[in-house]
Write a structure and sequence with these properties.
Rossmann fold, six-stranded mixed sheet, 2 domains, 348 residues, globular
Amino acid sequence: MALLERFRAELPVGPDTPLLNLGEGGTPLVPAVRLSEMLDCDLRLKFEGQNPTGSFKDRGMVLAVAKAIEEGSRALICASTGNTSASAAAYAAHAGLRAVVVIPNGRIARGKLSQAVLYGAEVLAIDGNFDVALRLVRDIAAEGRFTLVNSLNPYRIMGQQTGAFEVVEALGRAPDILAIPVGNAGNITAWNMGFAHYRATGRAASRPQLYGFQAEGAAPIVRGAPVENPETVATAIRIGNPASWQRAVAAVEESGGGFWTVSDDEILAAQKLIASTAGVFCEPASAAGVAGLLRLHREGALPKGQLIVAVLTGHGLKDPDTALRSAGDAAIRTIAADGAALRRALGS
């Protein structure tokens, strides 16, 4: 069932709202048995990479674009480190709208850039980072010609909360802890909203503690000040001044959770560990939550026996180049094309 139809009662979907549908939502909640043993917990991986454009952005984008159409808009604009541009471009193509995406020049994974291009968006690359791009598109959207579909659009957040709805429905309860990467901070805000809604309506008895993880080189919330030139291999969370900063801080404090940093090395190691132990290939930023759980466990700061959901925000095929570089040359051996060489390689 289409996401807008499935959660019609929980979302601002009225009789004039077009029920756009690319197959978003309904993503798997994968039991991570081996990682659970390592962490002394019950860990589930909510794999948002199974959304139609390969990231969680589709949950909010489908609602944002549907409401834009309902309100008479024919053109969308966004700033992006990659996933938002792909999602906006796909739903614009599906609905026959104009899409303009503004990206940091040379600072976007090729998998994401190729999506925006092939979906037919007008791609404009600037010599500046995401935060500069967002300021520019906000100014343009304020002129009234375009609908802004970044997470500042309230419908984006409303749509993204459906991830929390699905987790509660799958588990029959809210998890004890939700671990999630934090970049522009809209997603952690949305998940908190979703859990709060289900608790208020009696479908969940509790809400989870929110554990938000930022990359060390792009950790303005943890450090308490904007980062002028954020740097991290996790391009999706390479953001120095999150748009939803204050809402995210309020949500985490209310939940009794916290924010922490993880290094690029920890992120890449977690990405590989998730793939090799759970069979799930996520992009680097998506692995920040698991990387953070591993760090907290090493430090003795992760409570034992908890039911934990880690949100994997995007598919690994978004950024295959980083995965291959991280694996190194030794990951692929070249052998002669004959049986003897193969047997030698197999140790027989």
